[in-house]
Structure formats: structure tokens, C-alpha cells
Amino acid sequence: xxxxxxxxxxxxxxxxxxxGLIPMFSKKGGRLHNVTGLIYYWSMVIVxxxxxxxxxxxxxxxxxxxxxxxxxxxxxxCFTGKRSLKQRSGTPTRWYDWGISGLMAITALAMxxxxxxxxxxxxxxxxxxxxxxxxxxxxxxxxxxARYDFRKYLQPSSAKxxxxxxxxxxxxxxxxxxxxxxxxxxxxxxxxxxxxAPSSVYIATWIMPGMIGGMIIGRVMRQYLSKRKVLTT
Length: 233
What we know:
Blueprint: H1 2-25, H2 31-57, H3 62-83, H4 95-124, H5 130-154, H6 165-193, H7 199-228
């Protein structure tokens, strides 16, 4: 069972990485964009489910827990990014919108709590645990996204992009999902490519995809904001 889940998780994750690039560079709203976007979405569903199953049947360690947190975060971004398209037609908030944001909030709180315990434990031993920092940082970032969702669900007028919320949240969340997926892929494979690399290489692998991808998404967002003359709140 476990070998099959690992194979499925890795294979579908690779499919998501390969296919996920196509919607980014294809014509928005076109058939190619829509079809490959759906393939990416359902690939991420499988990746998230297999990640959770592997946690249940595998020995727990910090790396496995962190990658599971990233898998949940990536699916959450993908789900809310896809759901944002429904806002064009005024679709009301459903129970599963609250559910996925709630799951992300709980996961974020768990990551912050666990990361804090790792950090305090290492400081008590007069060492420094970088893993604790990573848990805390990713927990805060993902929790911030969930908090924004709750505020928007309770008060739709608080949406920062106004009537164009669906468009910009779609870009932000789907792009963020791809970055998170790429980060997990890089983390799993860097030890095979650089088996004797110093810890700085692994730390850079945790951080750099988010920094570089975030800057790219930010630039794309600014271009569309300027083009569409949207005032953020």
C-alpha cells in the first residue's frame, strides 16, 4: 500500500508541476487554459489526499509533517483560487468554503505551535532549530490567508480588489499553489541531487521558491492592477 501511495503521490505531483505551467502562459479563459487548469486542480486533490494518507501510515518526523503542511497549504490555495471564479456570478459562500479555510487555519495554528515547541526546545539546549522557524513562518503566512477568507466571508465588502476580487485572487492563489508544490518537489529531491550539500543549500531550497515566485506573482499583479485600474483596499 505504502509504495503505491508514494508512487501515486510523486507521479501526480510531477503531472501537476508539468501541467501547471500551461495555464500560466496560455490565453486566460481559453480552452487550453481551462482544461489544463482543471487537470492541475484535480492533480492537487490527489496529491493532498495521498500526502495525508502517507502521514497516517508512515513514521512521523519533522520533514514529513512539514511537507504535509505544505501539501494542505498548496491544495487550500488551489481550491480557493478555483472557487474565486464563481464570484463572477455572485455564488454565495458555501459550507465547504468555510471548511477548507477552517482546515487551513487549524493547520496553520498547529504549525506555529509545533514550530514554537521545536524552537524553544532547541534554545533550551543552547542550539538553534531552523525547522522550528520554517514551521512558524509558513504557519503565519498560511494563517494570514485563512484569516482574510473569514473576514471576506463575514463581510464581502472587505474584499481588497472590489468587483475584480475573483480575478486577482485566482491569480494569487493558483500561483501560490504552484510555488508551494514546487517547493515540496524541490525539498524531496535536493538530497538526491546534492547528497553532501551543506545545510545552507537545504535552507535555500525551503525559502527561495517562495521568494522568487512571490516576486513574479507580485509583478504580474501590479501589471493587471494598473491595466484594469483597480484600487485595492
